[in-house]
Amino acid sequence: MANIFLQNTLSGKKEIFRPIKEGQVSMYNCGPTVYDYAHIGNLRSYVFADILRRMFEYNRYKVNQIINITDIGHLTSDADEGEDKMAKALKREGKPMTLEAMREVADFYFEKFKDDLVQLNIKLPSHFPFASEHISEDIELIQKLLDKGYTYAISDGLYFDTSKFSDYGKLGGLAPIDTDHSRIGANPEKKSLRDFVLWKFNRELGYDSPFGHGFPGWHIECSAMSRKYLGQPFDIHTGGIDHIPVHHNNEIAQSEAAYDAPLANIWMHNSFLTINKGKMAKSEGNFITLNTLKEKGIDPLALRYFYLTTHYSSPMNFTWQALKGAQIAWKKLRNFVSRTVLDSKDMSKGTFDIYKEKFTTYINDDLDTPQALALVWEIVKDKNINQRDKRDLILYFDKVIGLKLDKVDDVPKNIQKLIEEINEARMEKDFAKSDKLRKEIESFGFEVMDTPEGTKVEKK
Ligand code: AMP
Ligand code: ZN
Hints:
The chain has helices at 40-58, 85-92, 99-119, 135-147, 179-182, 218-230, 244-259, 290-295, 300-308, 320-339, 349-364, 369-381, 387-401, 413-427, 431-443, and strands at 5-8, 13-16, 24-29, 62-67, 151-154, 157-160, 196-201, 214-216, 234-240, 264-270, 273-275, 278-279, 316-318, 446-451, 454-459. The protein is of the alpha/beta class. Strands 4-3-9-10 form a four-stranded parallel β-sheet, with helices on both faces. A four-stranded antiparallel β-sheet has the order 5-6-7-8. Strands 12-11-13 form a three-stranded mixed β-sheet. The protein is elongated and about 85 Å long. The site of adenosine monophosphate (AMP) has 17 residues, from helix 1 and strand 9.
């Protein structure tokens, strides 16, 4: 097996990947809080996780992948201040403040999220565990922390005492707290600013627990669900870089304090998608959804191509112009593959292997997708290999980059009929008629191409 190198936020280094179980990878991708549509910043996280999974599969690993669904307990500030995001959604949508209504809202946005993943050709994980279905696992973990003396209660909840966990903040190396400024808006009852809620009290809504009625904290949910489905430690934990300072350090603290074992061996984080140089975020009101893109004639797979042009760990700025450029490039590539004529002899195995080796090197080097894409274009332009082999190679790599390069747009029935008529006109050498038909097809927004196998069309 070829070596795989991954940048580990925990060690701050690029490391050779060594699985816990031979030939297998267990991976947890922090999932969405389903109180609204996902935006294309969020979706960058899941395309990154999908490339990671596909890279492992390309290297013949079996991947057990979990994406959790947060349908309760996430407050508007990741540091456990503010309103509950799901409660906010209930108000926004004029629904009653009940657990059933919360689940209704969650199911609706979960389905939308899943649709987004499918349209981006993201493989679905082994499980999408919902936080609301894992209350007993949360309670068990919190109980363990309580028994070991890591908690304290204040008026609004049971908290984790970060001063008791000497390794607190090891992920990404947290800077000392700027006490003069950070206290603003923070809960004055907390012993330390970084202490976080394990169980939030709520008399009206929520679940019974030995600690009181209420909701689990957002961080404990990920610790409990990852342990249930993947064990502890598992191989890889991912999320956006915004999760490093709070959410992931909190997950590490509570899981490791409770069970005296690391939570995950490798922590990987994607950088932000920005717009006008600011983070794309629901709270900033500057977010764009996949639907908006589609309304503007952008195919979700063009967005996937756009993401891959930048390394996952670098920030990337969104502009319509850049996205349109990505769509043109993606279509060109797809057209190239669909136009290749299946003919002639195979290229020498040597050339094939050289390209494969290069691709493996790039993708195994911490998912270097910009280099992998550049290699695909190099193959397109290589004058020394035949069309059929180019196609085979590109489609082989497409298993990892996932751009559906083998799929030709569905051609509507009326267009198919016009194509048949063109082919007949050609057979009869009635070129005036075939030209007229060609123009008619073009007026429906299709490009017409003559190939040795007959007339083909592509959406312009
Ligand atoms: P959330 O639903 O807010 O918990 O976010 C889901 C995922 O999207 C998390 O992994 C976040 O870190 C990530 N994320 C949020 N905003 C962005 C952004 N602008 N660019 C890239 N990833 C983001
Ligand atoms: Zn999480």
